[in-house]
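Protocol step 4 of 6.
Sequence for U-box domain-containing protein (Vigna mungo) entered exactly as in the expression construct, tag removed. Do not edit the line below.
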Amino acid sequence: MEYCRGNKINIVEAGALEPIVSFLKSQNVNLQESATASLLTLSASSTNKPIISACGAIPLLVEVLRDGSPQAKADAVMALSNLSTHPTNLSTILETNPIPFIVDLLKTCKKSSKTAEKCCALIESLVDYDEGRTALTSEEGGVLAVVEVLESGTLQSREHAVGALLTMCQSDRCKYREPILREGVIPGLLELTVQGTPKSQSKARTLLQLLRESPYPRSEIQPDTLENIVCNIISQIDGDDQSGKAKKMLAEMVQVSMEQSLRHLQQRALVCTPSDLPIAGCASEVSSK
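Step 5 output, structure tokens:
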């Protein structure tokens, strides 16, 4: 692993980066794909990330994301996702207005793919900025594409998707609550509260809290349980289809939660041995005398 990491750095230090970046502009599809794949590999090194950006690769990668072949687009978004983890690179990526092209790719790729995961990771980072949030909501089907990943992506993809939506809602609840609700996010969030990663579950619950009519607890008489939060949201959803689906998901979520609790109790019962029960043991001895 250390050898591979050093190899990536050595390639850049040997002066190979400049010609690779120039090949991103090539009209030859194979050459452009090879250059994009090379940058994807090199961008995995934290040492290389600022150097790749300084060579002007980011705007060219966004152009590939817009006009390249399907393979080049997938590699470009993954390279951009790698580069975005360096603090100075994210603002450079944002300046190229990449969200329309990321959304286009997200709409067409398989929602459980690595490409979808990297698209959502990049979107989650970009919506930290007002320009990123505005771009996503302005793009037709932008929020919906994220919601679809939240529903059917990998565990990691779903974590990025709910993180992006939560960031938006936390930044300006009044502005983004309706656009998020409109895309039918509730069923996916309900499922995520019981089947996601611990981080996803926490974010899903927080987002459900923000999506209710009032984000604050109503009273001690009606405790702020997940069921109450969701029922409050469902009552505001337009359309019988969405409301019915959300109610069904809520019932299923409660059922899954009950089954998980039952399994937990059964496991504890199996672990508990007779030596853990001294009272029963004493009673047995007394009765035998």
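Step 6, annotate. Residues 1-96 form a domain with the Leucine-rich Repeat Variant fold (CATH 1.25.10.10).
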